[in-house]
Amino acid sequence: xxxxxxxxxxxxxxxxxxxxxxxxxxxxxxxxxxxxxxxxxxxxxxxxxxxxxxxxxxxxxxxxxxxxxxxxxxxxxxxxxxxxxxxxxxxxxxxxxxxxxxxxxxxxxxxxxxxxxxxxxxxxxxxxxxxxxxxxxxxxxxxxxxxxxxxxxxxxxxxxxxxxxxxxxxxxxxxxxxxxxxxxxxxxxxxxxxxxxxxxxxxxxxxxxxxxxxxxxxxxxxxxxxxxxxxxxxxxxxxxxxxxxxxxxxxxxxxxxxxxxxxxxxxxxxxxxxxxxxxxxxxxxxxxxxxxxxxx
Length: 296
Description:
- There is one protein chain.
- The chain has four helices and 20 strands.
- With 296 residues, it is mainly beta.
- It has a six-stranded antiparallel barrel with strand order 1-2-3-6-5-4. Strands 7-8-9-12-11-10 form a six-stranded antiparallel barrel.
- The chain is globular, with a radius of gyration of 20 Å.
- The N and C termini lie far apart (64 Å).
């Protein structure tokens, strides 16, 4: 390959990567109509949980249009006006939930994509980089905490859509445009904190563990060694034992307990998940169905 053709090949490869990530993102973006306005929403869980902005749904009900064109009635489950967040619930299962990303360790210069319904146009994706994180100057000389700044194009209709990393993992929910024209998004870890009261009955596997590094096929790989497995829990019924090293869940690597929590919380109750674990030096395949632990 010559020096002249190499940049073109790289550009073409990058174009296909962006297109593939964008396609996955748009599958998990919905249009939200409430009252006289509309915006976007992000499918957060397969069992019908959708996250959008508080200002997008002024009423207590909304009409949600999926990427397939199907329309569903939605009810507002909870709100957080301070962070401009709202949780919607629709009567549906197996929705294409988008995977949450690591918003705590985002940094300026990180490449991101914003997906939504720009100015009424369905399925628009724009790209840019993160320009700042944390505290942002707000109106009237106030300061807004816990926001991601990015130079992606946002306009009316984008609010409530995802801001995602290069792998299509959601780093935040697009919320507003600052006076400088910079887009502002509410980080994923703030969204998850907001959802916790509404989801006091979380799906669980019935395990505890700690992060380790193990040798798999002559390569070092991170995972979670199981310290305890509850006997009649989903993990116990699936055949997992204390000492097994969990490597992946539902096709996603689980290199830390935080990643395990994120993957698990995007799944609905009783969804059959494929799990890979290392036992006595061999990779074993398991099928596990997360359940909801009854509130104490």
